[in-house]
Amino acid sequence: GITPIHVACGNGHLEVVKLLIENEADVKAATKNGITPIYVACQNGHLEVVKLLTENEADVNATRSNGFTPIFIA
Q: Which sections of the protein are ANK repeats (predicted)?
């Protein structure tokens, strides 16, 4: 399901995302439809959040159930 890091990424809260990562939030967490934190950050145009996620091993090629990737949606 949706996790706090999904919400923070989707809203562009960079400092909150940093705090969550420092406290071991899973940057690769996916919903049952394959939505990852980097996907929602890309979808909402939060480039600094995307950069932070990629620096922390988020998968830019993770595919959603509809076949879309974060790069596609950006």
A: 1-32, 33-65
